[in-house]
Amino acid sequence: MALHDVPAPAKINLFLHVTGRRPDGYHLLETAFRFIDLCDMLSFDLRRDGAIEREGEHLPGLAAEDDLVVRAARALQRATGTSLGAQIRYEKIIPSGGGLGGGSSDAATTLIALNRLWNTGLDRRQLMQLALLLGADVPVFIYGQAAFATGIGETFQPLSLPERAYLVVQPPQSVPTGEVFSSPNLTRDSESVRITVFTDWQKENAPTCTASGCTGYFGRNDLEPVVFASYPRVAAAHEWLAGLGLNARMSGSGACLFVEFVTFEQAAMQHRKIIGKIASRENDDAAVAKDAWVCHGLPDHPLRYWISS
Prior knowledge:
Layout: E1 2-21, E2 27-47, E3 52-56, H1 68-80, E4 85-91, H2 102-117, H3 124-132, H4 138-143, E5 147-150, E6 155-158, E7 165-170, H5 177-181, H6 195-204, E8 209-210, E9 213-214, H7 224-230, H8 232-243, E10 249-250, E11 257-261, H9 264-280, E12 291-298
Parallel strand pairs: 3-4
Antiparallel strand pairs: 1-2, 2-4, 2-5, 2-12, 5-6, 7-11, 7-12, 8-9, 10-11
Helix pairs in contact: 1-2, 7-8
């Protein structure tokens, strides 16, 4: 038995406000998550010896015990008492240190896929509880739909978002999330907003989107000033996009930036221009952008209906 070519989609944070900090050091957040169709791909073959083995493209030097995919599989084994194991292969597409949740998404896809392959029968709530032990971003991928998130990013309300496309740009630099959140310069007292404030803004500001992207975004990403100050190549990429007339926002803790468009064709047109500049090294553009993708915004996680609610 096997499950092959199982997607693990990236996410973007449409905004990210840091509203406080708990005594245990975790930050209180308000954010809107949306999945995009930039995906890692994983395959799972059943093992009956209980072993969890991985193969494929891993982060250089990443030990198995530190790999979220392996940790997720072992967490599901412990929680359910199954004697089954898995041979896991995966292909990384989502850049590490990009603020797109690649590692968290891989862990969530592992939980969802192995819950099916092993027939362990956990429902969405149970898988989300297990996911939270792996990282604050993991539960949203189990939740399975666009969401307004509060708490440490684990309390969700569903969002209905308009169809959008996104140009995602990767600067030639990665950003460790922990370093950003530990910075003394991070704003930690943003004013809270209700979900209705965000959804009303979405409806009222749709006309501000043009062929060059959306000219305004709701709120802000409170992590941007810290990242831009400490990671000059991320700041340079943001400035470069602005010079091209594109209004970019950083996703999560960075380093990746996104520009929102109404249609996929609009995003694809700008993508062709950017890729052409990177390939030709025009004005040394390759120094400020490593890669770029054009993506559809997804209403749901591709595996949302693999789980019983």
